[in-house]
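SEVERITY: medium
COMPONENT: batch folding queue
REPORTER: lab tech (J.R.)

DESCRIPTION
The queue accepted two submissions in a row. Attaching both inputs and their returned C-alpha cells so the on-call engineer can compare them side by side.

ATTACHMENT 1
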Amino acid sequence: MAHAHAGVMRTRRRPYSFANAATELGFALAAFGCGLFDAPVWVTALAMISMLAYWTVTRSSVLNRLRGATWATVMTVGVVAIIAIQAGAYWLGLVAGGLI
C-alpha cells in the first residue's frame, strides 16, 4: 500500500513475521541436530544451503531494490551471518553430543 506525504510516495513495510523467525530457528535447530547426532557433512551442507535459499527468497523484496555495491554488501553480510549462525549451531550440537 502506498502513501503520499508531502509529494513523496512511500510503501508500507511488511512486518517481520513470526513465521519467518520460527522457520529460521528451525534451520538453526537442524544444524544443531546435525552436530548433535554427528550427521554426514552433506546433510549439514544441505541445511546451510536451504537456509541461504530461504533467506534470499524472503528478503527478495528488499534485495531487488538494491543495486551495485549496496546489494553486494547486504548479500555478503547476510551470507556471512547465516554461515556463522549455522556453523555455531552445528558446533554447539557437537559439543552437546560430546557431553551427553
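ATTACHMENT 2
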Amino acid sequence: MAILALPPLIRPRLAAKRGLGNVENINQVQVSITSQRLDTRKFMLLMASAVTINLLVIAGINILMTQDAFTLQELKSQRNTAMDEKDAILNLVNQKNSPVNLSKAAIELGMKPANKIGYLNYLEMEALVTK
C-alpha cells in the first residue's frame, strides 16, 4: 500500500527490482523508464524555454518603460524651458506696460497731456450720421 503512494519516479525502479527474474519484463521496464526520462526531459525543456521567454518579455517591457521614462524626462525639460521663456516674455511686456515707460514713449511720440477729457457719446454720433 505504501509503495503505491510513492511518486511516479520511484515506482518504475521498484517494478524493475521486482521483475528481475524475467528478461522480457526487464526490457519492457527499461523501455518505459527511458520513455519516462524522455518525457521528463521534454517537460524540463518546455519549462526552461517558457521561463526564458517570460524573462525576455519582461526585459523587453523594462527596456520600453525605460525609454519612455527618458522621453518623458526630455519632454518635461522642454516644457520647463518653454515656461521660462514665457515668463521672460511676460516680464518684458510688463516692463513695457508700466506707467513710467508708457509716459516716456508718449512724450517721445510728441503727445501731450490733455487739459480736458472728452468722452464719446454714441447717441450724438448716431444723430449726426443719420442727418
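NOTES FROM REPORTER
Residues 68-108 form one domain.
No errors were logged for either attachment.
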